[in-house]
Amino acid sequence: QVQLVESGGGWVQPGGSLRLSCAAADNIFRQYIMEWHRQAPGKQRELVASMSPTGSETYGDSVKGRFTISRDNIRNTVSLQMNSLKPEDTAVYFCHAKLTGWTSGYWGQGTQVTVST
């Protein structure tokens, strides 16, 4: 079992920025694919960004060019820098960790991001 703890959510005006962080309590963190997902009210959970153990990044179409995922394999953390935020980015953001070949892994408790005037 990998414990994941997210932080950094909150309220921001459209066009603003937030940085989310996820701390993993596991000494094999560097072996995991680390992802950020989000779920808005009444919508399915969607993949926002993913980073492989080797640093390869992928992004959902709606956040490309605005969000950046990064990881620190020394501190066992993964971050999501969110710029040019839009109201449609409002959601609960979840950190997810899985090993290669897994369809699902471990989830954090989620952190709320609200973008509004």
Can you describe this structure?
This protein is mainly β and 117 residues long. 0% of the residues lie in helices and 50% in strands. The chain contains no helices and eleven strands. The strands form two sheets. Strands 2, 4, 5, 6, 9, 10 and 11 form a seven-stranded mixed sheet that branches. The protein starts with a strand and ends with a strand. The model has no long low-confidence stretch (mean pLDDT 94).
How would you briefly describe this protein structure?
With 117 residues, this protein is mostly beta strands. The protein has strands at 3-7, 10-12, 18-25, 33-39, 46-51, 57-59, 67-72, 77-82, 91-98, 106-107, 111-115.
Summarize the SSE layout with pairings.
Blueprint: E1 3-7, E2 10-12, E3 18-25, E4 33-39, E5 46-51, E6 57-59, E7 67-72, E8 77-82, E9 91-98, E10 106-107, E11 111-115
Parallel strand pairs: 2-11
Antiparallel strand pairs: 1-3, 3-8, 4-5, 4-9, 5-6, 7-8, 9-10, 9-11
